[in-house]
Design goal:
single chain; 53 residues; alpha+beta; two-stranded antiparallel ribbon; 2 helices; 36% helix; 23% strand; globular
């Protein structure tokens, strides 16, 4: 789930059981993260793009 990956990267996440709306706070930190790629390739692409900047 995207919220789990973001939390592993140091972002504070508030949501309603993983549903929208999601409130994010903080910056992504450089770290390793485990993500199940079988759920959505869009999730992986979004994380890669966010970590690039």
């Amino acid at each position: 789930m995207i919220t789990d990956a973001l939390q592993q990267l140091g972002v504070k996440v508030e949501s309603n059981a993983g549903l929208l709306p999601i409130k994010l706070e903080g910056k992504l930190r450089a770290d390793q993260v485990n993500v199940d790629g079988s759920v959505s390739s869009q999730l992986l692409t979004g994380l890669l793009m966010a970590c690039r900047f």
